[in-house]
């Protein structure tokens, strides 16, 4: 089942701000990065997915359900970690998470058990009876994550989960999110403006800019340069470079690394097929020269490089 679909989703706030402008995406289950600069429309998108805000135009489904009609069901199957601190300082984490578990419909005992379990998953089990007011920022972020997990959701929506954390705290939070997504099999949408962070843990990407879709698809597709292969041999780099040029390839050399251009294709599948042919030709050239092959790979790029070069597009591209 598709995790989230939107069709020409548009949100205009009273006063004339268009926060989302004709957004069309289809995202499969996994750990999905929702990225964009401040004001891009990420929080608006999350609120629409939860049924907290109605769209002005267009439609969306979450776990196959329409938030406009099934917002209660969606909220029972989705956990939401809001961006801002909204925790009562006088309560303990155990009390708060149990209370929110009850609010999501769990019976009293089950809510208490699930709260303990959720707090253990986020590493707060030992501290669960302390008042939240005495917690560090990192611990408060973990309480927000635990309350999102308490009712055993199918999908977690995390709004800027590393906000306010120091580097070690950010690292620990990312590891935790990754573990929840991979070991518990819960799909996660991570809303962030930190590209380096989401690139490491997410399997898919929705990038928005000024309310418009910049790009969506798998993280691998976003970070793979399809038409450039990277080759390294332990010795004989110059001979290999010459041999590849002789075979008609355009090659550039950067120290021990050769970058070999593969003819592009009309679409992703054609580009993949062309890259496979180019890889075969490289392997054949390496074998002919009897060189030790060290690396043969598609070139990767950082998400930040993609957004530095990507022109804002009129229309979605996958
Ligand atoms: N309730 C509102 N009324 C009017 N305009 C709003 C409202 N909420 C958000 N906006 C505007 O809509 C646009 C998108 O805001 P949104 O909060 O969705 O972006 P964001 O990507 O989540 O940004 P941030 O990372 O800063 O939270 C912004 O221009 C914002 O000022």
From TrEMBL:
Molecular function GO terms recorded: ATP binding; ATP hydrolysis activity
Alphabetical list of InterPro entries matching this protein: AAA+_ATPase, ABC_transporter-like_ATP-bd, P-loop_NTPase
ABC transporter domain sequence ranges: 4-235
Signal peptide: none
Tagged with keyword Cell division: no
Matches recorded under Pfam families: ABC_tran
Keyword Nucleotide-binding: yes
UniProt keyword annotations, A-Z: ATP-binding, Nucleotide-binding, Transport
CDD domains: ABC_DR_subfamily_A
PROSITE patterns hit by this protein: ABC_TRANSPORTER_2
SUPFAM superfamilies linked: P-loop containing nucleoside triphosphate hydrolases
Family: Belongs to the ABC transporter superfamily.
The protein, known as: ABC transporter ATP-binding protein
Organism: Virgisporangium aurantiacum
């Amino acid at each position: 089942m598709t995790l989230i679909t939107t069709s020409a989703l548009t949100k205009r706030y009273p006063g004339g701000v268009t926060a989302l402008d004709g957004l069309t995406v289809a995202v499969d289950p996994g750990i999905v990065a929702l990225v964009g600069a401040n004001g891009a429309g990420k929080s608006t998108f999350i609120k629409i997915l939860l049924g907290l805000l109605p769209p002005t135009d267009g439609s969306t489904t979450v776990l196959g359900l329409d938030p406009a009609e099934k917002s209660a069901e969606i909220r029972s199957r989705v956990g939401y970690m809001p961006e801002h601190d909204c925790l009562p300082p006088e309560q303990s984490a155990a009390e708060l998470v149990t209370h929110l578990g009850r609010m999501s419909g769990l019976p009293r005992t089950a809510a208490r058990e699930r709260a303990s379990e959720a707090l253990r998953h986020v590493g707060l089990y030992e501290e669960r009876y302390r008042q939240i007011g005495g917690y560090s920022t990192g611990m408060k972020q973990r309480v927000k994550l635990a309350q999102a997990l308490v009712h055993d959701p199918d999908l977690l929506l995390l709004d800027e989960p590393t906000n306010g954390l120091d580097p070690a705290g950010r690292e620990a939070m990312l590891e935790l999110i990754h573990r929840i997504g991979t070991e518990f099999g819960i799909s996660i949408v991570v809303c962030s403006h930190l590209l380096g962070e989401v690139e490491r843990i997410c399997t898919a990407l929705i990038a928005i800019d000024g309310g418009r879709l910049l790009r969506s698809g798998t993280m691998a597709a976003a970070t793979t340069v399809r038409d450039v292969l990277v080759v390294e041999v332990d010795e004989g780099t110059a001979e290999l470079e010459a041999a590849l040029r002789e075979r008609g390839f355009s090659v550039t050399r950067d120290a021990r690394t050769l970058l070999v251009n593969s003819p592009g294709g009309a679409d992703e599948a054609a580009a993949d097929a062309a890259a496979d042919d180019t890889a075969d030709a490289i392997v054949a050239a390496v074998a002919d020269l009897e060189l030790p092959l060290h690396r043969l790979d598609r070139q990767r790029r950082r998400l930040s490089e993609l957004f530095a070069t990507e022109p804002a597009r009129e229309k979605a591209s996958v």
